[in-house]
Amino acid sequence: MNSVNDLAGIFGQVIESNRVAAYCNIASLTLLCYDYITTVSDEINVFWGSPWTIGRILYTLTRYCAFIDGSILNYCESHFLNRYLRKARV
């Protein structure tokens, strides 16, 4: 019986740490959005009118892949966290 309680405690800690990680990921995506909003006018003036170069390609990839990666990560973590929380309640 003691091992069942130990497993339940460990499961609770894992769920809590995953929840904290999900909150940190949401906070980082929020900061990324804030950075984008505050610098988009400079980006329009400097990059959108210039020809495509290696530097512009690398800048575009690093600038916008972070949004895609962060969104997918937040979706997956929230989906799996909710699935495990539903199993824990049953």
What does this structure look like?
With 90 residues, the protein is an all-alpha fold. The chain has one domain (2-89). It contains 2 helices and no strands. It has helices at 2-46, 54-89. It is rod-shaped and about 65 Å long.
Quickly list its features:
90 residues, mainly alpha, 2 helices, 90% helix
Helix content: over 70%
| Structural class designation | mainly alpha
Question: How many DSSP helices?
Answer: 2
Shape, per Cα inertia axes: rod-shaped
Averaging pLDDT over every residue, what do you get? 79
Rg, Cα atoms, Å: 20 Å
Strand segment tally:
0
Kindly, what is the distance between the CA atoms of the first and last residues, rounded to a whole number of angstroms? 19 Å
Q: Name the poorly predicted regions.
A: none
* Count of folded domains: 1
Largest sheet: none
Task: Tell me the series of helices and strands, N- to C-terminal.
Answer: HH
- Relative strand content: under 5%
Domain DUF6533: 23-68
InterPro entries: DUF6533
Organism: Sphaerobolus stellatus (strain SS14)
Protein name: DUF6533 domain-containing protein
